[in-house]
Amino acid sequence: MECIFCKIVKGEIPSKTIYEDSYVHVFQDIDPKAPIHWLIVPNKHIASIAELNEDDSEIIGKLLLQISKLAKEHSIGDYRIVANTGRNAGQSVFHLHFHILAGRTFSWPPG
Ligand code: DGP
Hints:
Elements: H1 4-9, E1 17-20, E2 24-28, E3 36-42, H2 57-73, E4 80-82, E5 98-102
Antiparallel strand pairs: 1-2, 2-3, 3-5, 4-5
Bound molecules: 2'-deoxyguanosine-5'-monophosphate.
């Protein structure tokens, strides 16, 4: 069965879209952990950061640049980028994504 983020990229299941182009989709997380909680995904299916190869360097560059641009456009000054990589690190959807979290004060390390 095709992955859920591939279906979102193709518009086969709905999402609250923030931005899309030929490289990336950005949409609201269904289970937000902060006032702003977006996901940015490559349109190409890549399972995780661990599966990246040299051919993906342009895509990764586009993802990070788009995060920076969208944050400026939405006047988000401070934010956090998270990419859970692997099941034991909390990854539940195996289509590479960065979480963009903002709107509350984060402490790091937690606790
Ligand atoms: P992770 O645990 O890092 O793999 O994050 C996956 C995130 O994806 C999690 O915060 C919830 C979100 N998510 C899962 N299914 C859907 C969905 O169908 N739509 C949207 N918008 N988000 C989803």
